[in-house]
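Just curious. Invent one:
>
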Amino acid sequence: VENRRVDCQLLLAYRFRTLVGWSILSKENTDFTFSHSPNGFNSIDGRMFQVFVDPAYRKQGIASELFKKAQQLVGDETLCVCPWDERSKGFYNKFSNVKTKWL
């Protein structure tokens, strides 16, 4: 960030002034190996979305709200998501109306 602009947005979720979750919307290219994308992420594919919710606050719709906000911000752009287990795959599959690409 000190040397160049970083093309990324942070979405933060609070409950009673406590940070309980976050998500990142990124256009930063990476060669990090993902399970469905061994060559990494290229921003021409869309915007990378990552989410985390504190385990004590899961199953309360927080991640869903962060995902919906991300969708609103990117409009028609594809959200590139990183499911890492069956539970997270199920989470992303709930949003069948959203254009996604699995990384």
Notes: The two ends are 25 Å apart (CA to CA).
